[in-house]
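Data deposition worksheet. Section B asks for the primary sequence of the deposited chain exactly as it was used as input, without tags or linkers unless they were present during the calculation. Section C holds the resulting structure in token form. Section D is free text for depositor observations; keep each observation to a single sentence. Incomplete worksheets are returned to the depositor.
Section A, Depositor: J.P.
Section B:
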Amino acid sequence: MIEFKWNKIDRKNNTPVIKDVDLDELAEMLIKDYKPAILKAPRKIKYEHFLESYLGANLEYQHIYYGENEGPVFGVTAFNKERLKVFDKENLCTKNVTLDKNSIVLDYYVTEEGREGLELFTGLHEGGHLWLHPKVYAEPEGQISLFAREINPVTCCRRSDIESFGRVWSGNRTPEQWREHQADYFASAIAMPKSTFIPLIQETLKANGITDGYVLEDLGLKEQIFAQNELPEVVMNVYGVSRQAAYVKLKKFGFIKNKKNIEKENSQFTLF
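Section C:
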């Protein structure tokens, strides 16, 4: 496995300061090292094998416990040997399970039938934390802390963290929000690598008579259906991702636009 190294780090909390385009490049670097064939033709990645055999994760599944006033937890990454509270359905009680270092736990909810895209994305999201953020959470080997930890070494990713992919933020993000975004984008870049994603969509657009290289989703009903249903379904069928992940990726890469996007782009070239 290629170790994550990055020069730009927030020294206060060790969060990488990294752009989405850089995550695209890093994802392709990892895939090329893991299984180069994935970059030659679009296909669904076997996230379990990628996490376990390449990233070295200990992958398991549990009914992850969450409080009454808290959102459901879809996934957990443990950077150190830790305890996790889970729900024992057989005995109808909660209990603590011990997680080994570098463990990833997915909640059974995401593995239910019909949620295959969510399962894949959640698994890769946790893999993003494991690869990108060990300096944030992992404790040095053999170090005994006499004080309370400032950061919980188990990252609990709730529904809001996983489903916020593509969210438009207003104001400054917290370091934790940046890390969740990075894990989300990492998942997208691994699941839909740009080397196969871009040619696939370009060919699909041409096959549907679209020569501008993008579709305006607010141009009319036909365009809206194509942008929000038909085109994402192509991505879903090829890469095994959810409709939301496919749609966000298509917008991020400029294959789906709206009139405001075009007006903004045109205004950049207006002469005064």
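Section D:
Residues 195-267 form one domain.
The two ends are 52 Å apart (CA to CA).
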